[in-house]
Amino acid sequence: MKIVLLVLNCIFLAVGTCGGPLVMRLYFIKGGKRIWLSTWLQTVAWPINFLPLGISYFYSLKNINDNNNNNTKVILMTPRIFVATIGIGVLQGFGNYFYSYGTAKLPVSTSGLLFATQLAFTTGFAFLIAKLKFTSYLVNAVILLTIGVVLLALHSGGDQPEGETKKEYILGFIMTLAAAALSGLIFPLVELIYKKAHQAITYTLVLEFQTVYCFVATIVATIGMIINKDFLGSKSN
């Protein structure tokens, strides 16, 4: 069962990682302008987690009733983890906005390469926060990605979309790097939360964590849409 869950999650992650940016970029190419809406769509499907969570809770309750084990917890997330997860959700919400803005202003190839620098940010923050040990493979990967971004910056404008100003292109460049930096910060913070939890990191706990932080990220995007009047059909960004 663990292998099946791992394979399914890898498939979903691969499809979302590859297909998401293409669909988002297509929306902007076809005249879409609502960046906050694109941000909102990245996490709005969080209620889907209720299905596997419900199944997990059902089996936990069944185990309690069958074994008369009242010490077994159904909801694994503690109040401390819950509060920390809310903070992660806020960061994720703004990270999603930065990523959407970059996707709106840059070609998919450029934004994809820039966002890949999250590995370098993750490595740096993991070293500072989670005490990650460096390896030669990790250092080589970070160096190659850094060189790629430098070369891209030197030739910025060569793939500048038609009708887009230089200022918008550079801002999209910066926003994408900001999204990569936030993603690089979030991963070590999540690892730190798991370490400080002092409990087994089960599939149920991970689902609870994802459900809460995606919900919070969606709330952040919803507030952005309200302020930007996206619900009223405004054509502004």
Biggest sheet record: none
Alpha-carbon Rg, integer = 20 Å
Class inferred from helices and paired strands: mainly alpha
Number of helices: 9
Task: Note the overall shape.
Answer: globular
Helix content: over 70%
Q: Can you count the beta strands? A: 0
* SSE arrangement, N to C: HHHHHHHHH
Cα distance spanning the termini:
45 Å
- The averaged pLDDT comes out at 84
Strand content: under 5%
**In terms of per-residue confidence, which ranges show pLDDT below 50 for 5 or more consecutive residues?**
none
Organism: Nicotiana sylvestris
GO cellular component, one term: membrane
GO molecular function: purine nucleobase transmembrane transporter activity; purine nucleoside transmembrane transporter activity
Transmembrane segments: 35-60, 81-99, 111-130, 137-157, 169-193, 205-227
Task: Provide a brief overview of the structure.
The chain has nine helices and no strands. It has 237 residues and is mainly α. The chain has a domain at 21-64 and 76-115 and 177-228.
Task: Describe the model.
With 237 residues, this protein is mainly α. The protein has a domain at 21-64 and 76-115 and 177-228. It is 75% helix and 0% strand. The protein is built from nine helices and no strands. The radius of gyration is 20 Å and the shape is globular. The model has no long low-confidence stretch (mean pLDDT 84). It is found in: Membrane.
Task: Chart the SSEs and their pairings.
Layout: H1 2-29, H2 35-41, H3 50-67, H4 79-105, H5 108-115, H6 118-129, H7 136-154, H8 166-197, H9 203-228
Helix pairs in contact: 1-4, 2-4, 2-9, 3-9, 4-8, 4-9, 6-8
Protein name: Purine permease 1-like isoform X3
Subcellular location: Membrane
Membrane topology: Multi-pass membrane protein
